[in-house]
Amino acid sequence: MNGMIRIVLPYHLRTLARVDSEVQLEVASPATLRSVLDALEARYPVLRGTIRDHGTLKRRPFVRFFACKEDLSLESPETRLPDEVVNGVEPFLIVGAMAGG
Amino acid sequence: MSKIRVLVGTKKGAFILTSDGKRKDWKVSGPHFAGWEMYHLKGSPAEPNRIYASQTSGWFGQVIQRSNDGGKTWETPGSRPEELAGPDGAPKGESNKFVYEGKVGTHKWYDGTQHPWEFKRVWHLEPSLTDPDTVYAGVEDAAIFKTTDGGKTWKELSGLRSAKGHLWQPGAGGMAVHTILLDPKNANRIFIAISAAGAFRTDDGGKTWKPVNRGLKSQYELPDPDVEVGHCVHRIAMHPSRPEVLFMQKHWDVLRTDNAGEQWREVSGNLPTDFGFPIDVHAHEPETIYVVPIKSDSEHFPPDGKLRVYRSKTGGNEWEALTKGLPQKDCYVNVLRDAMAVDSLEPCGVYFGTTGGQVYASANSGDAWNPIVRDLPTVLSVEVQTLR
Asked: Residue A20: its pLDDT value, please?
């Protein structure tokens, strides 16, 4: 079963992708970190390389993934997203990490 | 009547400054791409309303932007206008894919060990002199890329990294191709400069490259001051009428070559300090050059708190301070390597931007200066278009 996942992008990526608030994407089950990012980049190719590096698909160092008050940034790309995210109750947050003073 | 368009890249967005040929009254447009580091913007000589911009972020990496209307509207190359329209419109472009060719390889790291190449950002965009869809990009970690489809896709000219790339080493500001000079008389010849590797030249359109650093001496930075690669070249400049003559601002020393880099000689002469970043050439006088002396590599500000551009009308060695209209006390800004440019009106206009956010312009070859704007974010680059 596919889920409609809500994704919240940081300000600069919203302006780059020209979206206002949340992005909603249908993601095939089981939804994982990798599959939701694949779906996001497929819908908005301009975001390729801004969240994950081209080629290696490694998360960029100052990008973080949060969901249901948990930090998923260091989890494996195959990690399944929480049910609340898959059901659209909670958003999947892509965040620019705090840096600087 | 002629018009001047100044393209300013800053740490927090891009600004476009326009004036008529009198160069007295200026309009300021921006910030474009607010909040992003705009390393460089440059217009196509073949189609001046086509402008390319390097938009970058420590968080989100690299994006290339392109305008077809002189900077009024922008797009990521690869998106058709109709794809951007409507509630579901979204850029389709993927103009930021800078992937090194073949085996990535390694270069020298700060501790002397070998370190793999890692793409970070585009420092400099150099549009072709004849084709608006062809652009060269100088990037960090140092390499040169080329697009022939208007920025949609980029391909590395990997022969450059074969020119002893394993000996290149980052300076304090990183290791980047920051200067690209296209020879207007020989389409196969390109000069580039890298901190900290030196100057390089190709004579076959970018397939193969060779270091052109003979005569450079880096006695304070390198154990062997005459080494073939490793020099921290800050900037090189060329007058289009004499592409075999180049001028260089090195970490320390100002130099010139009269034979396309085969041999350099120092022309620092009576400069108060020969450390600095930018160097440029007068539009109509190939022996008139400009530098902005900076106190030292430890103190990146003008000597004595006085912001002075130095001009030589003799191709170096004999320099005069240009101070009229520039702050002559308590000034501690820097002028970065890509932040000086000239227009081609008569008399020649000279422009530079500072780390304090001022953009200064002279409409009389440097004799007198005025600030166009005073309070922009740190200026990273300045380019000028003379529109006729």
From this structure: 82
Query: Can you point out the beta strands (E) in B33-95?
Result: 37-43, 51-57, 61-67
Does residue B308 contact residue B323 with C-beta atoms inside 8 Å?
yes
Q: Which two tokens stand for residue B326?
A: 């520039």
What is the predicted ipTM?
Answer: 0.84
A16, A46 Cβ separation under 8 angstroms: yes
CA dihedral (B231, B237, B241, B245) positive or negative = negative
Is the Cβ–Cβ distance between B61 and B39 less than 8 Å?
A: no
| A7-21 per-position pLDDT tens digit | 999 999 999 998 988
The two three-digit tokens of residue B41, written as one number: 């913007």
User: How many other CB atoms are there within 10 angstroms of residue B233's CB atom?
Assistant: 28
| Residue pair B27/B21 in contact by the 8 Å Cβ criterion | no
Report residue B43 as tokens: 């217009």
pTM: 0.94
Pairing of strands B51-57, B61-67: antiparallel
| Nearest Cα to Cα of residue B330 among B353, B352, B306 | B306
Degrees (nearest 5) of the Cα angle B56, B10, B147? 45
Tens digits of per-residue pLDDT, B231-244?
Answer: 999 999 999 999 99
For residues B385 and B380, what is the distance between their CA atoms, to the nearest angstrom?
17
Contact criterion met (CB < 8 Å) for A49 and B61: yes
Domains, chain A, with CATH or none: 3-96 (3.10.20.30)
CA A24 and chain centroid, separation: 11
Q: Is B73 touching A (CB cutoff 8 A)?
A: no
Report the largest interatomic distance among the alpha carbons of chain B, rounded to a whole angstrom.
62
Token readout for B34 is 């607010």
- B345 and B23 Cβ atoms separated by less than 8 Å: yes
pLDDT in tens, A17-36: 989 889 999 999 899 999 99
pLDDT tens for B157-205 read 999 999 999 999 998 889 999 999 999 999 999 999 999 899 999 999 9
- Alpha helix ranges (H) inside chain A: 11-17, 33-43, 83-86
Q: Does B352 touch chain A (CB under 8 A)?
A: no
Strand segments, DSSP code E, in B170-317 are 176-182, 190-195, 198-202, 210-211, 233-238, 246-250, 254-257, 264-266, 275-281, 289-294, 309-312
Show which residues on chain A lie within 8 Å of chain B, measured between beta carbons: 10-13, 16-19, 43-46, 48-51, 53-55, 60, 62-63, 96-97, 99
